Each structure stands twice: as C-alpha cells, then as structure tokens.
C-alpha cells in the first residue's frame, strides 16, 4: 500500500466524516454558516472590494510600475524584493488578508516578480485589517478601544520582522532580476508608467469590467472559505475534537506561564480568528494574556485565511510552505511584541493598574474607526447585493450575448 493510496483513503475519510457531522449537527452547522455569512457580506465583501478593484486598475494603468521604480531603493535592500512589492505591502496592510496574496500572484503572473521574490513578498504582505482589529476585536469583543493600539503595533512590528527575516530565504538561488542604478529615478518612473499603460491596450470600459469581475470572483471564493471554516470550527467543538487538541496546548501554555483556560479559544482561533478572538475575550484572566493570545492569532491568521491564500497561490508557481512558516513566526513575534509594549504603552499611557482582573471599558461609539466598522453591518449587505447583481449583469453580457452573436 503506497503513500498516495493512504492519502486518498484519508481524504475520503475526512470528507465523509465532515458530511456525517453536518447531518448529525444540522442546527449548529446552520448557525455557524449564518455567522460566517454575516461576517462576509456585512464586513469582508464591502471593505475589500474597493481595494481589489482599485488595485486592478492601478496595475493596468502602470501606477504599480511607477511606484516600483521609486520604491526600489527601499524594498530591495531591506526585503530583497522589487520596488513594486512596496505597493503590495501598503495595500495588504490597509485592506487586510488575503489582499497581499492576490496582488503578489497578480504581479507574478505579469512576471514583475521571480518565484523566490514572490514567496518572500507574500510571506509578509498578508496582514489583518486595522479596521477589523480596532472595530471588531478591541471595541466589539473586548469593549476596550485602547488595546487596539497594542494589537495593531504588535501585529505590524511582527509583520516587518517577518519581512526582514524572509530576505534570507532563497539566498542560494540566483536572482532573476537585477537592480539597475537609475540616476534619473522620477523620470524613469514616469517612463515605466507610460510604457506599462501602452502595453495594456484594453479600453477603459473593459478595464473596469475586468476589475469588477476579477475582484468579485475572488471575494466569492473568500466567502466560501469563511463559511466553510466557520462550520468546521463549530463541528469540531461539538464532537469534542477541540477539547482533545487543547490538552497538549495547555501543557505548552504552562511552560510560558499562560492560563490553561485560554487553550480552547486558542485552538478555535487557529481555525478561524474571529471566533478565537471572541472566545478569548470572554475568558476571566489577565488582560495581558488575552492580548498576547489574540496577537498570535491575528499574526497566524487562521487556517481559513491559509486556505484562501493557498487557493490564490495555486494559480501560480508560488509555493505555500514559506507562507505557512512565516505565519507561525509572525504569530510568535506579535505575541512577544504585545508583551513588550504592554507596560510602556498600555499601563503607563492609560494609567491602568496592572491587575489580574480584565478591565472592561464603556463602549465608545464616538471613535471614528469603530463607528465606520459598525456602519458596515448596516450598509455592507446592501453594497454586497448591489455588486453581486452587477456581477451577474456583466457575466450575462459577456457570455450569453457573445454566444448569441456567434449564431
């Protein structure tokens, strides 16, 4: 019996077990699906869609090439990636995962990155949306806007550390692109902008249609993964798999003097960070420990995001393994930075006594970031449905009308 046959049996067993669990726990599966759907169409879709569409247009108009020339002196020495990686990094930080993976794959398909450079870039350009950290995690789950500062700083410091460490990845392979000294940097950047736009000779209407179609297709895939892992997480909890996996984690936590009560939320967060962060906020323990666990989960991103990134990277020759190990490094480093920043930023800055009781603050709707996040829950579904209808119209006009013209 070879390994391939064993893998086939294992995959068939897992799929069958998952299907049987859906039948055994229909009510729990439905509730988990609704929770994932609400997160996707209320927050994820309307918040990511503008970034995806604008990114496609910026690439088509040559703006990414323009920025690539300007940012080459910064990105190449620090991260050993082309200057266009600076655009991916900025968009990834602003819009959240998996925008970094989508843009990296797009640049790889256009051969603006080598395989190794793309694997370096995708490892540190996928980060959590600051809006999600401030709005959902700190204000929504913890009812404490102040810890959002710690979470965001720890998250992005860990992100930068991963980028610097990944510059040593693939040093044995030859560089496919040379860094060329350009005395007239701005002039060369505008030249690249113009040449890149000329190479993409699609009319403006087609550019907009392609950007909308590509962005919505990616977001539909993301929504499917969010719902799938939300259901999977719920089923694992009800069949006590989460409790079994939490046993070795509790021993690991004891080494770092972390409470055992955080092991089950930690396991849930490894699959889906939203549920893991919510469960962590409900544990009665030191707020510092809660922030460290959530920082790790945000850095690791959860298997749901990993599946989304793997699906996007599968369209290219970019390998997933470097991304996976980079997520572990970022999770650990983010937890470490949260511990380092806790006393100078949280304890002293907000004059809060360091106790073992979790402080709960009155929710403040006046915060603009929090207010915008909660507005998405009201306006998000309308935006999502409107663009899905637009997608159907575009799909119909391109496929069915073209077939009619052929006849």
Strand content: under 5%
How many structural domains does the protein architecture include?
A: 1
Q: What class would the helix/strand composition place it in?
A: mainly alpha
Which series of helices and strands comes N to C?
A: HHHHHHHHHHHHHHHHH
Keywords: Membrane, Transmembrane, Transmembrane helix
Transmembrane segments: 48-71, 78-97, 147-169, 207-229, 287-312, 324-342, 376-396
Protein name: Sporulation integral membrane protein YlbJ
InterPro entries: Gate_dom (IPR011642), Spore_IM_YlbJ (IPR014226)
Question: What's this entry about, in short?
Answer:
The protein is mainly α and about 400 residues long. It has helices at about 5-25, 25-60, 65-80, 85-95, 100-110, 115-125, 130-140, 145-165, 185-200, 205-240, 240-255, 265-270, 275-280, 285-300, 300-315, 320-345, 370-405.
């Amino acid at each position: 019996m070879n390994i391939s046959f064993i893998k086939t049996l294992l995959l068939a067993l897992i799929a069958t077990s998952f299907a049987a669990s859906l039948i055994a726990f229909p009510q729990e599966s439905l509730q988990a699906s609704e929770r994932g759907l609400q997160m996707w169409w209320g927050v994820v879709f309307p918040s990511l869609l503008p970034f995806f569409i604008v990114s496609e247009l910026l690439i088509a108009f040559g703006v990414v090439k323009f920025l690539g020339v300007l940012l080459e002196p910064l990105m190449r020495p620090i991260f050993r990636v082309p200057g266009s990686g600076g655009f991916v990094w900025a968009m990834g930080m602003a819009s959240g995962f998996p925008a970094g993976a989508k843009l990296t794959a797009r640049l790889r398909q256009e051969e603006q990155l080598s395989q190794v450079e793309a694997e370096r870039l995708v490892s540190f350009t996928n980060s959590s949306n600051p809006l999600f950290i401030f709005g959902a995690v700190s204000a929504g789950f913890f009812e404490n806007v102040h810890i959002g500062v710690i979470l965001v700083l720890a998250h992005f410091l860990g992100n930068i550390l991963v980028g610097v460490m990944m510059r040593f990845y693939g040093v044995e392979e030859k560089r496919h692109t040379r860094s060329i000294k350009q005395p007239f940097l701005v002039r060369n950047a505008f030249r690249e902008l113009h040449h890149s736009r000329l190479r993409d000779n699609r009319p403006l209407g087609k550019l907009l249609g392609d950007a909308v179609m590509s962005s919505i297709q990616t977001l539909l895939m993301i929504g499917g993964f969010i719902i799938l892992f939300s259901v999977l997480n719920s089923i694992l909890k009800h069949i006590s798999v989460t409790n079994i996996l939490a046993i070795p984690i509790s021993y690991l936590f004891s080494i770092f003097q972390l409470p055992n009560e955080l092991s089950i939320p930690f396991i849930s967060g490894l699959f889906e960070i939203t549920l893991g962060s919510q469960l962590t906020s409900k544990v009665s323990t030191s707020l510092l420990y809660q922030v460290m666990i959530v920082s790790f989960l945000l850095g690791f991103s959860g298997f749901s995001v990993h599946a989304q990134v793997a699906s996007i990277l599968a369209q290219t020759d970019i390998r997933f393994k470097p991304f996976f190990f980079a997520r572990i490094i970022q999770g650990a480093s983010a937890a470490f930075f949260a511990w380092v920043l806790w006393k100078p930023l949280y304890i002293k800055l907000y004059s809060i006594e360091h106790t073992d009781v979790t402080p709960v603050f009155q929710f403040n709707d006046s915060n603009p970031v929090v207010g915008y996040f909660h507005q998405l829950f009201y306006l998000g579904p309308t935006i999502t449905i409107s663009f899905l209808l637009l997608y159907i119209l575009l799909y119909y006009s391109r496929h069915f009308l073209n077939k009619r013209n052929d006849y």
